[in-house]
Amino acid sequence: MPGFLSLDCGGKENFTDELGLEWISDDKLTYGETSAVQVPSGTGKQYATLRHFPADSRKYCYTLNVVRRTRYLLRASFLYGNFDNNNVYPVFDIYFGATYWSTVVISDDSTIETRELIFLATTSTVSVCLSNATTGQPFISTLELRQFNGSIYNTEHEEQFYLSVSSRINFGAGSDAPIRYPDDSFDRIWDSDSIKREDYLVDVSDGTVKVSTRMPIHIDGDEMPPTKVMQTAVAGANGSLSYQLNLEGFPGFGWACMYFAEIENLASNESRKFTVAFPDHPEVIAAIVNIEENAHGRYHLYELGFANLSLPLVLSFRLDKTSDSSRGPLLNAMEINKYLKKNDGSLDGEVISGLLSHYSSADWAQEGGDPCLPVPWSWVRCSSDPNPRIISILLSNKNLSGNIPSEINKLTGLVEIWLGGNKLTGPIPEFTGCMDLKIIHLENNQLTGGLPSSLVSLPNLRELYVQNNMLSGTVPAGLSSRDIILNSSGNINLHKESRKKTHLSAIIGSSVGAGILVVVAVVGGLFGIFKGTRGNNTRGRNRRNLCMFPLLTDINGTQVIPAAGEGAHRFGRCELEIATKNFRSRIGSGGRGDVFSGKLHDGTEIAVKVLANNPVQGEREFLSEVAVLSGIRHSNLVRLLGYCLEGGDRMLVYELMQNGSLRELLDDAGPLQLRRSLNWCRRLRIAEDAAKGIEYIHTGRAPVVVHGDVKSANILLDNCMRAKVSGVVLSKLRSGGTVEDTDPEFSTPHEDVYGFGVILLELISGQGAGTGDGRQNTVVDWAKSRIGTRSIQAIMDPSLGDHCDLKSVERIAVVAMKCVKPHVVERPSIPTVLKEIQHAVSVEENRAKRKSWAFARRTSL
User: Same domain, yes or no, for 701 and 821?
Assistant: First the structure.
């Protein structure tokens, strides 16, 4: 089959099995050992061999070719067969690239353990890796790829999640045998519901019967289950179907789909309608199914999908006929998959792949998988970050030839390079892309040219070994004068720079000159301070000229503060003291510090955030944050105008938003005139503005910025009542989040979605994030308790009255409740939320137009 790959791991020859599938040997793999095992009668030939690997700290990977932007089913199988003659059942992990897939637990000799994964290929190759044997040796029997076509298994979250297959059930099966290729053109394996197993399809309702047909089934759904599966079903003769099912890999969030086809001949006066419910999940609204009506005909497929379900280890589900139905429920098939969060792996994966392309035939280049996860390759060391960088290249004595690969200079996190004892030729690279380098080993090669002067600019360089090469020229003076271990012996044409004699008068002159400059600077500074403090009638514009901030320097007098970005002006503290009248008018406070209003000499109104002391964040980190924040420009984000870094003071200067925060406006103590103007259409516009700002930091720039503290206090309003988002923080140690609006999950874009859902509930209800009606702790709890049993008016702000379309309010309430789902995969993205808000805005605008037209018509009559 095109797009099929079937690897017989440990096999010696290619063959075609009884299903017509072609199996090929993995004998090109250069590591691991193969073993033949005894298999039960009737088990396929592909399980008679396996490949096993040492129980060490390495990972062992298969690399498979795929087609980009195409979905695949990946299947790995394991049959132990006591290959090691130890009767010690192995336990080991399997990874898909850098993503943990599953732990394989072997429980006997002859049971085949299978793992399946559905993924969208984003690269031309994928890797499957075995590692971390806790008991016995990791091994694998088969590895299979099955290519899908069209939109099959297309999910909203496939860029961030894989689907790990848990169950695929053929109800009403005529035997215990599974259905697969060629009946399923994609070779999915549909297990029979007749399998006798204690943990599989228990708690079956009385009156459950099997039904079947030979009529062809019209398969026109998204997932395209095979006809043979759809020709059988179970029916509830007593009016119900119920099951319990153990879910492999759960608890967690899952994707589920039930497949229905009306395969019984119902009389004209008969009907089949039933509800589908999950008793342990009352929040899932029971769906009502009328198969023939939903599928537009008998013998037609109808799919009932559940895109985001929080599922337990043991799932219970029920199908019950409705009161107006004459027949009990019917179920043909079911699939359940778990969302598996992708790990994008090392940030240097693409770069290191380019380096490997120079040495594709070398043994050390065959390890495969991500260079850092789950464990690093044997010749690299990585940082401990969730998405690590390579910090060490250890390729000494590996028989490397040619020039030093240019890709090394793109490994920006490198601390050590070990390339000694090879046959490398050509010049030494500049290494200007690796500013964290501490140790460089290039000894015992055949390198030519000189020592690059750029090596002097590596601030952390401590050891440089270049002995026994063919280098020439002069050792840069900066390398000789710094505290660096430098070994350049064995390069007969490489010389150290000769020291020139310096006249004593020149030394004295320069010293005296420097001393005079220091004295002048000190006297000038004191004069400025004295002049700035005398009298009380000095005008602000004159005093501003005296506002100076010191340059931070290292021991050699070199300025060490980097530029903070084109858009960030550096203010002096006294300039901001003048602008804020000694920080007199405080307009807000938070975990990072207090905010004061002010006005610059040119009339610009500003808000100055005086940051609380953060002992962890250094000057460079602060300025790096300023540089990034100043580059985030959007009409719905509060603009950073500048910063102050003077002594122990750190301040951020923003444009002033004259109408304060949304939280203040919704508060009963807020400006009455503004609160009265806060009708539903205005609230929708505020929500739309805020959503646009958050959408920009999530999707409109790289890298993605997570706000981390989305709340109504950080939605600010200008003179025109247009909303802008404030409080974007890049520091890892963010604070200021409150119990009312902080996401239960960790800091991701989904956290911002949760906070935005709280804001939507505040806009609908007028309630504060942490108030409610006194019985619930948060507006989320309060809304959940009311919205589930009453109409939308139960949570609406009474001040909205009848001046809005209830359908638009209900639409926003629905999306708000989705935003505050307890788990991230249940929440929509901000772009999706924005579309819902814009739809509600259009509903309100059309209502206003209709009302205006009706009024004009009455007036004209």
Answer: yes
